[in-house]
Every structure is written in C-alpha cells, then in structure tokens.
Design goal:
2 copies of one chain form a homodimer. By secondary structure, chain A is of the alpha/beta class. Chain A has helices at about 10-15, 20-30, 45-55, 90-100, 105-110, 155-175, 190-205, 205-210, 220-235, 240-250, 250-265, 275-290, 305-315, 330-335, 335-350, 350-355, and strands at about 65-75, 115-120, 135-140, 180-185, 270-275, 295-300. Helices cover about 50% and strands about 10% of the residues of chain A. In chain A, helix 2 (about 20-30) runs antiparallel to helix 3.
Chain lengths: ~350, ~350
C-alpha cells in the first residue's frame, strides 16, 4: 500500500469518533490517588486526562515516538510586498530540512521525533537545488504555489481539497509507520499573510487584530500586509465552508495541515499544533469537523497575534510560552516533553496506598 | 574523598566567578547567523546565550546529564496548624523518592536526570520506616527538624550554616560525579510557611502577599499561616544577614538549597530552581552572594504567590508555566527540555552560509 491509498480527507473525517469519556473520568480519579496534593501537577494533570480521553486508555500510552510533518508551499501574495524574504527561501529551507540543519530538525532529534518534509506546493524546482530523493521528503505538489490572493482566489476548490487530501494521507502514513503523536510543521514564505486571512474569516476578527510581523517586518510593510488581508477577507462570501475559505485566501500547506489534523484525530493520536499557520489549519479543520478539537493540543503561544486569536476562539490553552515565532513546528515540538511527562506521571507514579504515604 | 571533604559553603562562595561576557557576546552573534529570522526562537535564544555565559563556551556544552537534589527536612511550625498534612509524610515521601515512585522520579527519569535525596533535617527515624541504605540517599541530618519559628528562632546560626554546607557539598559531589546541570528539589511538610517568612524578609513584601495555600489549605488555615509568617518576620532584625534570616525563620532544606545554588554556580553549571522553597533558597544565596544570579534559571512559575514575589524581586523569567505547585523539583525538571534545546540549537543548527539559504 502506498500512502496515496491511505484514505482521503473525507473518509478520515467520517471516521472521526468522539473522545472516550470513560477513560477521561478514570484518569481524573486516578490522579487523585497519586502521591501528591490534589491538582498540584496543574496542567500535567489535565494533559494526562486529555491523553486518556484521546487514546481511550487509562493510563494513556506514552505519546512517543512523535512525527513532525513540515508542509511546504509558496504564496502568490508575495507580489504584494508583504515580506522581505525572496520566494526561493521556501525551497532552500526544504533543502535545509532534508539535510537536518534547521531548528525543527534539532528539536525533533532531541525529542526522538521524526521529521517528514512534504512539498505540497513549493514554486521552485527542488531538483535544480540538488535536493536528493529521500524517504523523509514526500513530493506531493498539488501546484507550484498559489495565485495572488490579493487579486483573486488563491487556488481552485479542487486544489484546496487535493491539498487537504495530501495532509490526511501523510497523517495516516505516519501513524501507520508507528507515530504515537503528530506535530504540525510548516514552511512557506508569505504564509503568515494567508494564515491571517483564513484566521480573520474563521474567527470574525478584523484584519488588524490578526495580522502580525511574521519573520519580522517594519511598520510600512505591516500596514500593507494588513490592507491585503482586509481586502482579501472582504471577498469571501459570508458562511463560506472551509474548502471555499482555503481556496479563496488560504495556502496549500494550510489546507494540508487541516487534513493532517483531522486524519490524525481520526486515528486517535494527539495532534500537537504549532503557531499561526497551524492555527489557520486548525480553524479550517474545526469549521468542517468540530469533533476534532479535543484531539488537538496547542503546543505553544506564538508571538504572532493571529495565533492568540485562534487559541482564544477555540478555547485552547498553549503548553509552552517562550516567545517563539519561527514556525516549522518548533514550538509544538517543545511541548512534546510535558506531553510525555503527563502520560508517564499516570503510568509510573506511586499511589498513596502503594507507597504507604498518609493521605 | 568523601563528599564531606568537597568544600564548605564559604570556600565555594569565594570561588564564584563572574559569568563569561565574551562567550555570551559570541553566542549572541552566533544566533544571528543561524537559518531563522533573527530573534524568532525567543527564549531559546536567550537561554542559549546564558548557557554560553555560564560555561564560558560558544556553543555551550549540552547541559546533560542533570542531577536533581531533593533536600528533605521537617518544621517545628507544624505546631501552629499551618497544614493539614502530618509530619510523618516528609519521611514517607523520602521513602517514596528512594523507591522511585514520586513525581520527581518520573520526570527525572524522562529527562535522563539522577535524583539524590538528602536528609538534611527530617524529624522521623528513616530506619524505622525501612528505608534502605542506597547511594542516592544521603544521610546528612543536621538536626531533627527545626523549632517552631512562631515561638522563636527556627534553629541556631550554627545549624543554618551547617545545613548550607551540606547543600554546598552535595552540589560539588554531583558536579564531580558528572552532572552538567543541577536542579533544586525539596520536601518538608510545613516548608511553604518557612519559605514565605524568608521571602517576606528578603523581598520586603508583606506576609499576605507571599503566603499561599501550599499543598491546598482552606481560608481559615491560610489566615492563621499568614499571621504566623507576619509575626515571625517582625522578629527578624532589619539588615540581618542571610544566615541569621535562615536561622530565625528558615528551614534546614532552605539553608541547604542556598548552599547548593552557590556551590553549583561556583562550578559554572546552570542551576535550575523550582518553586517557592527554592525561591527562598535563591534569595538567601543571592543576599550573601549576588554574583550567583546569572547562573540561576527559574525552572517554572509555581502558583504559590511567594514564588512570583521571588521572580519579580530578582528579575527572573520562568521557563515553564504549567500551574504546578508540587515542589520536589518537578517544575524545574520540566525546564530541562527547553534548556537542552537551547544548547543544541547553538551546537547543531546550520548557518545561512553553510545551508545556502538567502539571508
């Protein structure tokens, strides 16, 4: 079986089940028997209870190894001058990911996680850059970058749903390969502009509240970027479905992330999401498939304002808050430590009874 | 050489050197050459720069393996009804630490860190509990618990300085045994009361601002605890030195932590401090030895109000903020992941030049 046979987005969305409330209740009661004051492990307790609800087991399985998927794509909106970085950096960073030299590679190695790079829509010829054919690079290009979302739809609905299928298939491939947690990663020069537009549409927040400095832009460029987002958002019909929003103002990696998140949840593994690009993907996943939410863990709070808009809109509490704004999955990867700890606490800690400690 | 010969607190304090500003500047410049937008790794960047300043090397060594020292002691102030937990729980938890069943054991195993338990002043006979003689239990009891700090000095200055020497010797023993980072841990029923008193004295904050619910007490008990802290603090002469403060209102584990922190810094390893008990120890270390501060990393923000008072007073920014209030070193242990990541980023990430990425 190739990963192309592992199920479309639609089949995975249909397979998505509610979390297991019985395992959740069991883990909650279990925590109160462990040798510590009740509630004193704070978020580690709620994370452990969530892992039980996701897996249906108390104690939950240890969520390792994790697999990071970095979805890479380009953006036609670059023509509007929304970032100082040239488009070829997307492909250059794909080469860096494949070679293992980027931040996400370093963090994933530390966490014992794999990194799979998915070209879902890069505009540059990867072969011309000498990027080798290796198993951790998946060539799934739906098209070479999007059109300029400031001038019209970023892509067709067919391309958006094809990208979503790519993401879903990657999630299934990684889980079938042994991943016990999925981590969202992303790369694409210009993708904070598309993400801001998706977030504005799906949260109802105005463009200036969700548009940020991305890799670090000046005031004039931020003003232009915000104007581009506002105009694009105004074009999206009220009540548009997720696929339409992704096609009009989204990006190929954002659509792929939406599929990846839904499919991961359908396999009952925790899906740890990164920053603002993943936030746009989560919103698109949730708009189509609300049952996905309890399977999602917000890895961190990115400094991008759109990321916080997503957290607030969905009621997600980030695990890590270290002022990161890199993307690639870096913040989510750092959350794997506390996530693993949450499972290990339920699996390994002594109870008052077993340890002979007065309660 | 036994650990008793590894140097007193005074010799370690005298050996403490300033951090290396040249390595710090080198790491800062190094970060700007790595394949990411400048500053986009947020706190991971400043942590890496701090590790370079501490070690004197850019890139800094990976701060593993880490060693957790859990200092255990009892508190005479229990007679005032400041906690619902009986005193014997301190020794029962020592047994739990030695057996590997407590939260700190679980977290340390995950992080590849050792746990050393130090009886610096437990009131219960450990042999009567059947606690075995093992290398990771250090029997360094200075006295069997403190006197009631509500009624008079908790201990003599000689006992406070002896406990500080114990902590210093443990730090040296662990570093000589191969630890590349130290983590503070603590156990002692009643120790949030003593910690609040030390924090009130050394930050100048009123008792009600620094006294918290500890393991979880009701309003009436909190009012009584706050009153005890306020009265004890009023007894400490203005301008008292650290040893006097520790003797009057402190605890044996708090004094030991102060010695551990100073000695760890003198060996140029990062010292990751936990919550409110460690916070009292850091204040006592800093009051005597201000140069210790850049070697200290605040592992997490405990929910105890005294912990935040310490962070604010010393200008420390916590790494983790997950609502923990357990102690034992649990929050600090979770910070080891980001700390290791900060070093690995500087050691392993590609530069724009090496990766051929446009800057």
């Amino acid at each position: 079986m190739t990963d192309h046979d592992t199920g479309t987005y639609a089949t995975r969305a249909a397979a998505l089940e509610p979390i297991n409330e019985s395992a959740e209740a069991s883990a909650r009661a279990h925590h109160d028997r462990l040798t510590k004051p009740r509630g004193s492990l704070g978020r580690l307790e709620s994370l452990g209870i969530q892992l039980a609800a996701i897996s249906g087991e108390d104690p939950p399985p240890i969520p390792t190894p994790a697999a990071v998927a970095v979805f890479a794509a380009d953006h036609g909106v670059l023509a509007e001058g929304v970032t100082p970085w040239p488009q070829e950096v997307t492909a250059q960073m794909v080469a860096n990911f494949v070679a293992g030299g980027a931040a996400i590679n370093v963090l994933a190695r530390q966490m014992g996680a794999t990194v799979t790079v998915v070209d879902v829509g890069v505009a540059t010829d990867l072969d011309a850059l000498g990027i080798p054919d290796v198993p951790h690079l998946l060539r799934r290009r739906v098209r070479s970058g999007t059109d300029n979302l400031a001038a019209g739809a970023a892509m067709s609905i067919e391309h958006a749903t094809a990208a979503r299928d790519v993401g879903a298939a990657v999630a299934t491939q990684l889980v079938e390969g042994g991943a016990r947690a999925l981590v969202t990663g992303d790369m694409g020069i210009g993708n904070t502009t598309a993400s801001a537009a998706v977030i504005a549409v799906l949260t109802g927040q105005p463009a200036h509240k969700v548009t940020g400095r991305g890799t670090g832009i000046d005031d004039a460029m931020l003003a232009r970027k915000t104007e581009v987002v506002a105009q694009a958002v105004a074009r999206v019909p009220a009540g548009a479905d997720a696929a339409t929003v992704l096609a009009e103002v989204g990006g190929l990696e954002i659509a792929a992330l939406a599929g990846f998140i839904v499919a991961g949840a359908s396999h009952r593994v925790p899906v740890v999401v990164d920053g603002v690009i993943a936030g746009a993907g989560v919103l698109a996943a949730h708009a189509d498939c609300p049952a996905v939410l309890p399977y999602v863990l917000a890895g961190h709070r990115s400094t991008e304002p759109g990321a916080t808009a997503v957290l607030d809109h969905l009621g997600l509490e980030p695990v890590i808050d270290l002022g990161l704004r890199l993307g690639e999955g870096s913040g989510a990867c750092l959350a794997l430590g506390p996530l693993e700890a949450a499972a290990r606490i339920l699996r390994e800690m002594a109870t008052f009874e077993s340890a002979g400690v007065s309660e």
